[in-house]
Design brief:
Layout (H helix, E strand, L loop, with lengths): L16 H17 L3 H7 L8 H20 L4 H8 L3 H8 L8 H10 L18
Helix pairs in contact: 4-6
């Protein structure tokens, strides 16, 4: 099997005028109100971050999905069409950027590439937690 590689230079586009305005409004709001962490959590504007262990588990799951997709010789576009999930969201999931995917999202991705989602329960001590 011949491995194809393609080097792509990623150029990050500057935010649009509307996006800059939206971000500035957010900055202004937080400078004006200076909410506490408790207030942000209560309002729903902040949720606790995932642990490092959870991050690595999600990254591993995303990597496994990508490897299975590549093994099936499927493109992100074809998986997006079969799963009904946006191609950009699939890419974020594969690359560990999507930090809180639902079980439904993971399951739909797996089904689109001919796989099924399986959960495994380990002892907390074995996974590093007490």
């Amino acid at each position: 099997m011949r491995k194809l590689t393609k080097r792509v230079k990623v150029v990050k586009a500057a935010p649009s005028k509307g996006e800059r305005k939206r971000l500035q409004a957010i900055r202004d709001k937080y400078q004006r109100e200076k909410p506490t962490l408790e207030a942000l959590t209560a309002s729903g504007e902040y949720s606790t971050p995932i642990t490092q262990e959870e991050f690595w588990q999600l990254a591993e799951a995303g990597s496994a999905l990508k490897a299975a997709r590549m093994e099936a010789r499927m493109t992100l576009a074809s998986v997006a069409k079969r799963s009904g999930i946006d191609r950009a969201a699939l890419s974020r999931l594969e690359n560990g950027v999507y930090d809180n995917p639902t079980i439904s999202t993971l399951s739909r991705y797996a089904q689109a590439i001919g796989k099924s989602l399986v959960f495994k329960l380990d002892d907390a001590v074995a996974s590093g937690r007490k």
